[in-house]
Amino acid sequence: MPSMRSAVRQAMLDARRKSGPIGPPLAKASPGSFSAVSRVATFDQRLSVTAFRMLAALAAYTDRSSLAWPSQELLATKLGMGRRTAQRALMELEDLGYVTVERRRRTDGRGGKAPNCYALTYPERQPEGQVAANFWEATPPPAEPCPL
Predict the structure, then answer these.
(1) What is the mean pLDDT of each run of 10 residues along the chain (148 residues)?
(2) What sign for the dihedral angle of Cα 30, 22, 62, 132?
(3) Cα–Cα distance measured from residue 119 to residue 12, given in angstroms and rounded to the nearest whole number
(4) What is the Cα–Cα distance from 66 to 54, expressed in whole angstroms?
(5) Which structural domain, as residue segments, surrounds residue 92?
(6) Considering the domain boundaries, does residue 143 fall inside one?
(7) Model's pTM, two decimal places?
(8) In total, how many domains does the chain have?
(9) 43: Cβ contacts below 8 Å, ≥ 6 apart
(10) Angle between helix 72-79 and 83-95 (nearest 10)
(11) Disulfide check for 126: which of 96, 104, 117, 133 has CB 3.0–4.6 Å away?
């Protein structure tokens, strides 16, 4: 049985073949658009606020297969932080298992770097001593429905 890491890598390669060497065009956020972040990430006390914001930004750029191609410069600009801060947040997400990164180079003959490919891979279980991954296990829903 293939590992989760090899499955993610294969998904990245498949998506890259379909979209070309640089990746799909970046989605433009509209006023009514939103993205979802896992409850595991929301309640993970190991994540810094900066890394959580970075995860939310990556989620905003993902496609249906949880892959994203934004440049570090774009992420830093959109989040109002320096590029080095953005790099540290990405490394934190990678170290904690929220993101798998494929570092890429341009293949169009111009040389240089291409935007990295990021796969959102959320950890499989919550670290010891933290809030349950399923929020309702820790906090059951109220007995009466919401009056709204």
Answers:
(1) 62 56 47 74 92 94 87 93 96 93 78 82 62 50 63
(2) negative
(3) 7
(4) 15
(5) 4-18+35-129
(6) no
(7) 0.64
(8) 1
(9) 126, 130, 131, 133, 135
(10) 110
(11) 133
